Amino acid sequence: MQQRPTGVTILAVMAIIGGIGLLLTGGWFLITEGGKFMAGDTFHGGMGVTGAAGAIVLALFFLGLGIGLWRLKPWAWFLSLAVAGLLTAFGLLRVMARSDLGMTLVYLTIAGVMFWYLFRPVTKMAFGRR
Fold first, then answer.
1. Quick one: 34 exposed, middle or buried, by C-beta within 10 A (0-12, 13-18, 19+)?
2. What is the pLDDT of residues 16-71, one digit of tens each?
3. Are residues 81 and 50 in the same domain?
């Protein structure tokens, strides 16, 4: 079995932690805000039932991605590239919207490092890529 590179372990753990955080957040808002919604109250800056459900779906995605990275599944490499691509697109949209430059640079830096790392030969080999 191929040894998992340290960077892949870090990405996997980060994805799993992020997934758990999103799951807890979505679940919390579903319980607290969902109850208000069902009772007919309006939300005041709350995430709402739709946002809570979205967070839970995103949580399941990141948990699956983390497990796939941990197990060196080839599809996890592709999904990681997709995540890096989405971060890049989001960062570029922030540039066009003249949004907070600091966070924009964070998104673009994370995406750039992910692309760089995922295309390193040792990383690609770990996922069965050439």
1. middle
2. 999 999 999 888 888 876 555 545 555 445 567 788 888 899 999 999 999 999 99
3. no
Residue 106: CB atoms within 10 A of its CB come to 14
Domain hosting 84: range is 73-124
What is the DSSP annotation of 24-57? HHHHHHHHHHHHHHHHTPPPSS--HHHHHHHHHH
Helices (H), the chain: 6-39, 48-70, 74-96, 101-118, 121-126
Q: What is the pLDDT of residues 3-20, one digit of tens each?
A: 899 999 999 999 999 999
Q: What are the angstrom distances between the C-alpha of 96 and each of 84, 91, 124, 127?
A: 18, 9, 33, 35
Domain contains 129: no
CA geometry: angle 51, 24, 78, nearest 5 deg:
75
Entry pTM = 0.81
Identity at 98, one-letter amino acid code: R
- Asked if residue 1 belongs to a domain, the reply is yes
